[in-house]
Design a protein that fits this description.
172 residues, alpha/beta, 8 strands
Length: 172
C-alpha cells in the first residue's frame, strides 16, 4: 500500500524486501535521469532498520558491482559509479553526537561541494548544520515481519523536484 503526497513527503508502507529493492531501482533511475551534479541525502531509522541494505540496493541499481559495506566503523565508504562519486557516511559513532568540530575533521564539508558528488548520511541529525542542508531525508522503519515503511521528506527545491519525479514514476 502506498500514499503519495508530493508537496513535501512521499510515503510507502509495508514494503517487502523485493518492493524495497524495486523502489531503490526507481529512485536510482530518477536520480540518474535528473543529471544532478551534487546531492545531499539523509538516511534515518533505528539501528537495523535497513539503511545499509537500502544503500546496497541503490548502488547495485546504479550499476555498482562491488561489495557494499556499512560505514559504521569506518565512518565513510566511497564508491565511484556512473561518473558519480558517492560517499556513504555513518555519523552514529561520533564521540560527541552534537560535534560540528568532529564532523569538520572528517573533511566532508569540502567534498560535499565537489562536482558529481552525492553524499548519503546516516544519523545526519547528529550534525545540525549538515542536517539542515540536506536535499532529501529517507526515514526507514519496521512495519511488521521483515517489511518496512518508507517516508521521504524534501528539504530543498532539488529534493522537491526529485520527490515529484519519484511520485510520477511507475513504481506501484
Amino acid at each position: 500500500m502506498w500514499i503519495k503526497n508530493i508537496m513535501k513527503n512521499l510515503s510507502y508502507y509495508n514494503l517487502t524486501e523485493k518492493k524495497l529493492e524495486q523502489l531503490c531501482s526507481t529512485i536510482s533511475d530518477v536520480l540518474l535521469a535528473s543529471k544532478l551534479d551534487t546531492l545531499q541525502f539523509g538516511l534515518s531509522g533505528e539501528l537495523g532498520a535497513g539503511k545499509t541494505t537500502w544503500m546496497r540496493y541503490f548502488l547495485e541499481n546504479l550499476g555498482y558491482s562491488g561489495k557494499v559495506v556499512s560505514p559504521t566503523y569506518t565512518l565513510l565508504e566511497e564508491y565511484n559509479v556512473n561518473d558519480i562519486n558517492l560517499i556513504h557516511v555513518d555519523l552514529y559513532r561520533l564521540i560527541d553526537p552534537n560535534s560540528e568540530q568532529e564532523f569538520e575533521s572528517l573533511g566532508l564539508r569540502e567534498r560535499i561541494a565537489c562536482p558529481s558528488t552525492w553524499i548519503f548520511v546516516e544519523w545526519a541529525e547528529r550534525v545540525k548544520s549538515l542536517y539542515y542542508s540536506l536535499d532529501l531525508i529517507l526515514m526507514l522503519s519496521f512495519s511488521g515481519n521483515q517489511n518496512r515503511d518508507i517516508n521521504f521528506i524534501a528539504k530543498t527545491s532539488k529534493g522537491y523536484n526529485i520527490l515529484s519525479s519519484i511520485g510520477k514514476s511507475e513504481f506501484p
